[in-house]
C-alpha cells in the first residue's frame, strides 16, 4: 500500500474509533429513564452496543481482514448518534411529557 493511502486508511480507522467513543460516552452520561421515555432500548443495552462498537473499531482496522467488524461497529455507533441521541436530547429538554 502506498504511503499516502496507508495514512488515509489509518486516519479513517481512528476517526471511526473516536465516533464510537463519543457515542459510548454520550450514552454513559445520559439518564437511564430518558431512554425509556424516548421509547428506545434501555441504557445498559445501548452501553453494550456502543461499547462493543468502539471495541470492534479499536481492535480491527478499516482496511484489513476484520473490516466487516469495523464496519458493523461504525454502523452501530452511527445508529446511536443519528437515531437515539436526538431523541434523548429532545426528551431531556422537555419535548415529551414524562
From TrEMBL:
Instruction: Write the record's keywords in alphabetical order, separated by commas.
Output: Membrane, Transmembrane, Transmembrane helix
Q: Where are the transmembrane segments?
A: 6-25, 45-62, 68-84
Q: Which Pfam families match?
A: DUF2516 (PF10724)
UniProt-listed InterPro entries? DUF2516
Q: What is this protein called?
A: DUF2516 domain-containing protein
Source organism of the structure:
Amycolatopsis arida
